[in-house]
């Protein structure tokens, strides 16, 4: 079952606030993430890495190309007339040791690796945008909370100033209120600067230009807590986390590369077929023509040659590459095992953080914020009846503002912890 808790986490699940916004304004974190994933240049660059891997896969399937050789020879340039030779040869390399299927397997793992890296980059970018979104919304809510106190203080100062002018109140009360108005306005200016900076950081993370409209929500909405257990989250993380896919694919790829390197230590065979036609012309040492000149004899030969070419190499010639590939395989396997262990611990830490934040928000909502508001209302009534000093009202008002700001921080922490829990588990929890 799902239980609801008031917090800023609802902003992470596409809650929409449509009042007073332009039709084209981005109004939820889901919209922001979708637009960023579609337009982010870094994501597009990683997608090109996937396209590169697919090109390598296509290239890996190519077989060795044959060679066609044409030769023509003549003795005339060297003063030997009548000697000519023409030949044509065909040479076909043949891979041994299953090099082509092993090469294809390495390229297929490279495609899987690029796809997993793309998913991992999207996961990290989504989490970063959510975290920045939470910071921006929390800062905006703090500004609104301080604005309410500033408005109350200004109105109180106006009333007390009028009473002082009529000699119905002490000038000290007016001075105390003036100091409090200035203090809250200074606090408001600082928090407003933090809110503006948080929005800029959000736009930076999402690669959203300042010209693009962005409408942050005006109030938090109760989200749904994930109805899963810690063990289910651990199991899910081991199954779907992209960084684990990356580690496992790297391990499989390194194993395939080791097999390929070992196969490359086996020499390839080249089979050939050649046809040669030779012409020879020479003088008969005995016979002569009717004119008395030596009789010229001609000889023509047709020769077909078949051959096999095998490089004379040993496995030691490739031993260094084999040792390097074996080391890469061992390193990839070790990293994969380490990540499997740490992934479970990350989920456990995120779960503990989420549970603590959830309990903190529940306490604030149940016995802190409302009680603080009631206490301030009672003290104000007592001051109006002359039973308390203005300084007592101002002190309680400061405590009430601090309580509200702490409650906003608690709700923001709950939202961040839920986003971290999603990141650790490998995806949204619904």
Describe this structure in a few short sentences:
By secondary structure, this protein is of the alpha+beta class.
Number of spatially distinct domains: 1
Structural class: alpha+beta
* Strands side by side in the biggest sheet: 1-2-3-4
Radius of gyration: 41 Å
Total DSSP helices: 9
**Percentage beta strand:** 5-15%
N-C termini distance: 11 Å
Q: Class, according to the CATH hierarchy?
A: Mainly Alpha
Q: Would you list the SSEs in sequence order as H and E? A: HHEEHHHHEEHHH
Supply the CATH superfamily name: Outer membrane efflux proteins (OEP)
* Major β-sheet profile: 4 strands, antiparallel
Unreliable parts:
1-23
Average pLDDT, rounded to a whole number, is 83
CATH topology: Outer membrane efflux proteins (OEP)
Count the beta strands.
Answer: 4
Pfam families: OEP
Organism: Paludibaculum fermentans
Protein name: TolC family protein
Keywords: Coiled coil, Signal
Describe how the helices and strands are arranged.
Blueprint: H1 29-39, H2 41-60, E1 67-74, E2 84-94, H3 99-165, H4 171-206, H5 230-240, H6 242-264, E3 269-288, E4 294-309, H7 319-367, H8 369-384, H9 390-425
Antiparallel strand pairs: 1-2, 2-3, 3-4
Helix pairs in contact: 1-3, 2-3, 3-4, 3-6, 3-9, 5-7, 6-7, 7-9, 8-9
Describe the structure.
The protein is α+β, with helices and mostly antiparallel strands. The protein has a single domain, classed as Outer membrane efflux proteins (OEP) (Up-down Bundle), CATH 1.20.1600.10. It is built from 9 helices and 4 strands. Strands 1-2-3-4 form a 4-stranded antiparallel beta sheet, with no helix packed on it. A hairpin with a 5-residue loop joins strand 3 and strand 4. One of its GO terms (molecular function) is efflux transmembrane transporter activity.
